[in-house]
Design brief:
alpha+beta; Immunoglobulin-like; 2 domains; 5-stranded antiparallel β-sheet; 4-stranded antiparallel β-sheet; binds 2-acetamido-2-deoxy-beta-D-glucopyranose; signal; transmembrane helix; transmembrane signaling receptor activity
């Protein structure tokens, strides 16, 4: 009886430790980009980091595709940019930096990708669309900006999924209270210039993940603490050789059932 109980407790403990570990690693790590845009002028700089709840996380590396190959941002001997322990900094962006970037663990877990585009054209001929790289939360406001390198504001025409959606006299297109239907591929052009590259605006529900995670942690922590407590009490009692008391205690707790329920 006692042996079975101990085995059972060890099993519960093992399972809850596993759940605990998976609960902690079922995380919302994502690639953060600063400034939060997808298109950049040549020679601009950008900082990429792997974050969870706004904090940089260890064990994740910023990577990108280069043709068929995958490149890594490192402290030393980096394939691109330079990693300072927190973020990957790319200065003097060039067209060869136009590709998809993501974070990855050594076990191959990956975040969603962010596409960076540096348009061709030189000097003042460069035109970009400033559009957020990170998903926009439903209900928030965002302004898309059509920009020329020399930074003057021009009348710009905006397109969504190839359809003209309006003109911004100052090169701006405000999107007030963004809805799911605003998701799509955008580009713009200024007067006679050629159009900017196209970038996808992504839209997200407001985060509710924190509630889900809280519940997950409660569900997992409860059996963890109970089984830890019971195992410790079993061990302590064994050392003092007081088996009879333990088995009484245990059978009370188990048959009564209340001891377990109350804690949760
Ligand atoms: C990034 O680029 C890839 C390949 O061109 C494309 O499939 C993907 O949809 C793009 N993602 C975003 C968020 O624009």
């Amino acid at each position: 009886m006692m042996k079975m109980l101990v085995k059972f407790m060890i099993l519960v403990h093992g399972v809850s430790v596993l759940l605990l570990l998976s609960g902690l690693t079922v995380s919302a790590v994502s690639l953060n980009i600063s400034p939060n845009f997808q298109q950049f002028f040549r020679e601009a700089s950008v900082s990429l980091s792997c974050v969870e709840d706004g904090q940089t996380v260890d064990g994740w590396t910023v990577k990108r595709t280069k043709g068929e190959k995958t490149e890594e941002c490192r402290v030393d001997g980096s394939d691109f940019g330079s990693f300072n322990g927190f973020s990957c900094f790319i200065s003097f962006l060039s067209q060869s930096d136009s590709t998809g970037y993501w974070c990855e663990t050594s076990s191959g877990q990956k975040t969603e990708q962010i596409n960076i585009t540096v348009p061709d054209g030189t000097g003042g001929d460069q035109v970009i669309l400033e559009i957020p790289a990170l998903p926009v939360i439903i209900g928030s406001d965002v302004t898309l900006r059509c920009k020329k390198k020399d930074n003057n504001r021009f009348r710009a025409v905006f397109f969504k999924n190839g359809v003209n959606i309006g003109t911004g006299s100052e090169g701006e297109l405000p999107l007030i209270s963004v809805q799911q239907s605003d998701e799509g591929v955008y580009h713009c052009y200024i007067d006679e210039d050629k159009p900017t590259p196209q970038s996808r605006l992504r839209v997200r529900e407001p985060p509710s993940a924190s509630v889900v995670r809280l519940i997950l942690h409660l569900v997992v922590f409860c059996p963890f603490f109970i089984s830890t407590g019971l195992m410790v009490s079993i061990c302590c009692s064994r050392k003092t050789g007081n088996r009879a008391v333990v088995s009484m205690e245990m059978s009370q707790r188990v048959t009564g059932g209340h001891g377990l329920d109350k804690d949760c």
